[in-house]
Amino acid sequence: MAQNLKIQSEDIYNYKSEQNSHQVRYIKIPYIEAKPSAAAGESLIVDRKIQSFFAFDIQWIYSKGRPANMGVMKIMGDSMFPTIPDGSLILVDRSQTELVQKKIFVVEHDQGIKVKRLKRDSEKNYILMSDNELEEDIKVDPTIHFRILGKVIWVSYEL
């Protein structure tokens, strides 16, 4: 099966619960030491090295996309609060780079790398929107420097 999915067999784990007999298969997704900002005027990437791995249910992850294109990152800042609190982990699918209006993406532009909702205005500029009502939208001319790095497909944070 792993060869058909183009993943390493050592990246798939089986778990059988003692309370029920059904088996769950997990796949490792890399945790990348990249810290996209969700703060106004700030952006930081420490390193793009793989630091560790997170395990996700293999059926769930394939329902979202291809695991080879995914990575987990920690977010800094509160501009996406309450949807994504400061310190949250996000799962990003780097193959999903086509704009879907008002969905959350990791983007790179002249102010750095950020996590924002995206939309385009009538002049084809990108609008980077924060969920935090205290933050203002950022208008980006895509001819200067702009790239969608991937779509955020999962969020995890401590209560």
Q: State Rg.
A: 17 Å
Low-confidence stretches: 1-7, 41-46
Task: Give, in spatial order, the strands making up the sheet with the most strands.
Answer: 4-5-10-6-7-8-9
Order of helices and strands: HEEEHEEEEEEE
Query: What is the makeup of the main sheet?
Result: 7 strands, antiparallel
Task: Describe this protein with a few key phrases.
Umud Fragment, subunit A, mainly beta, disordered N terminus, 159 residues, 2 helices
Written description of the protein model:
The structure is a single chain. The protein is mainly beta and 159 residues long. The protein has one domain: Umud Fragment, subunit A, CATH 2.10.109. 7% of the residues lie in helices and 42% in strands. The chain contains 2 helices and 10 strands. The strands form 2 sheets. A 7-stranded antiparallel beta sheet has the order 4-5-10-6-7-8-9, with no helix packed on it. Strands 1-2-3 form a 3-stranded antiparallel beta sheet. Strand 7 and strand 8 form a beta hairpin. 26% of the residues are buried. The N terminus is likely disordered.
Task: Lay out the secondary structure.
Elements: H1 2-5, E1 12-16, E2 23-32, E3 50-57, H2 58-64, E4 70-74, E5 89-93, E6 104-109, E7 112-120, E8 126-129, E9 138-140, E10 146-156
Antiparallel strand pairs: 1-2, 2-3, 4-5, 5-10, 6-7, 6-10, 7-8, 8-9
